[in-house]
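pinned: reference chain
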Amino acid sequence: MENKKIGSVLVIGGGIAGIQSSLDLADSGYKVYLLEDSPAIGGTMAQLDKTFPTNDCAMCVISPKLVECGRHLNIDLITDSELVSLDGEAGNFKAKVYRRARFVDLDKCTGCGECATVCPIQTVSIFDEKLVEKTAIYKPYAQASPNAFVIDKKATAPCQIGCPSGIHVQGYVALVAQGKYKEAYDLIRMKNPFPSVCGRVCFHPCENECRRGEYDDPLALASIKRFIADYVHSHHEDFEKTDIPVKKEKEKIAVIGAGPAGLTCAYYLAQKGYQVTIFEKDSKPGGMMRSCIPPYRLSRNELDWEIEQILKEGIELKTNYSINSSEDIEKLRLDGFKAFYVGIGAQLSRTMRIPGEDLDGVFGGIDFLKKVNYGEDVKLGKKVAVIGGGNTAIDCARTARRLGSDVTLIYRRTRREMPAERHEIKAAAEEGVQFKFLTNPMENIGEDGKLKSIKFSVMELGEKDDSGRRRPKPTGEQFIEDFDNMLVAVSQSSDLTLIQGTGVKTTTWNTIIADTTTFQTNIKDVFSGGDVVLGPASVVEAVGQAAEAAISIERYLLGEDLKEGRKEFEPLPAREYQTYVPHEDRVAMRNQSPDDRVTNFDEMELGFNEEEAQKEAKRCLECGICSGCLQCEIVC
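pinned: its structure tokens
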């Protein structure tokens, strides 16, 4: 068989030998592909001061070759790449090449270097044999060819992987370390419009992933985020946004519920120019952030300011407006609304279905928190039992303590199995909340229609259930104890009255069924997320789902594929950072003393000051090298 020659040559290695070979071949008429493993050609000679044996200046010798090679019409530079396989025979080979992402467009980069001046990350320079440092975005050396920058991004930082809203966590930490607080604030809000709220109440899974925890303590990422938001709020006159909101000329979208999910979805859609109207049944926006999270955890002043920043995007808010039926939704369709987002949360307390739950003095945990947070005069007796082991139960217990009651938290498992945050459990104990574990209510005993005592069953732990926790089972032992009030905080559910008759599918747990990637329901123009889909969860999970739903809603209105390019995130392997990390204690959050804080509903945590925030931020190991702060994009 005749061997068909290609007329092109692959040169592997961009040192002086590879460069000269490429030039000679190209001048002979061959098409040359010069393959180099590093981001620039030049090889070892570019690193040298002098040549041997002539003692000439190495750069003076090689730089004309670099220029000629980069400009030659017959030479294509393939940098940051390596040969995977070579098939075929002499005269007709086929090469498979693995090309690493440069993260900088070679056709657009002018090599000006402005990006490197704002990069907050410093790492060792491989070109300089690790003797000096460089920024994460860099050019290997001044005369490098291609004359373009490259980003050293070896991994996605584990903290970002752990964040349900996908915030560039390492990015805002790096910016805080440099004192760039407004830039850090803007970076967070690209993914999450609630930095202040999440800085206070997030369960911070990012900290669980923080590699610093393998050496001493993980970074106080939530506390750093809170500092950023507090700083920008307190200096907001210096940072007032001058950008004019995008004109709202696109389709009308209805968002039902002004909680974290609804507000987030509305915010990102409004940024894209859609006419968004939020319908909220309460008199103020905020959802369960306002109605259920106690003010000692979340300042209402900070919540109001954060919501105000969202609404400034040109969102219409209609409060005291209930959507109660499929007829109401159909009317909105007739009014021109092209898509709907349901983010109504899970605001109903579940009962335990035991005798006596209808007695006076027995409250649902959510109902109790709403009454207190809305300023109602809630009268509790001296002795209060809180049933449950989650964050709502802890909130109920700590709130009841602030109302002057002696509180016992009853949980059917042990402290180890409690789903509440460890620091919340610790704070409750400091405030005088008593704990009674392996105990479960069986019956409420009343007198004249009012709770008098509770009959309990003593439990023991058996086999693990679906949650991975050991399942409690009765031992047969029982006892009765007097209590004036019971606060039931065992779980929550959603009021789905508004979607009855719409055809939207739901689960037996009274949640809406939505696609886990697009958050579209079985009714194409209806999307949903947050607690109404997840069941009782968290603010940050609601925010993350709502941001994804906003992307889906826009794609739906544009007639695009909702799932294209949105496969599950696949992180790169984590960076191999230094094997020795000097011990440095995590900066402790300053708090009100337990004796003081049980007398008021002021915020318990006092927040970081500037010195504390920077000190904590500088503990970051910079696992991903490039932090994703996006400052290079902004100045480009």
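why pinned: The chain has a mean pLDDT of 92. The chain has four domains: 7-99, 110-242+606-635, 250-347+494-558, 350-492.
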